[in-house]
Amino acid sequence: MMATMIIAGILATLCCVLIVMQFVQMRRLRELQASLAAASSRHESLLRKTGQAVGQLGQSLITLDQRVTQTQRRQQDLENKDSGSLTYAQASKLVQMGADPAELVKSCGLSEAEAKLVSLMAARGVGDGVRL
Question: Which residues form a coiled coil (predicted)?
Answer without folding.
Answer: 29-81
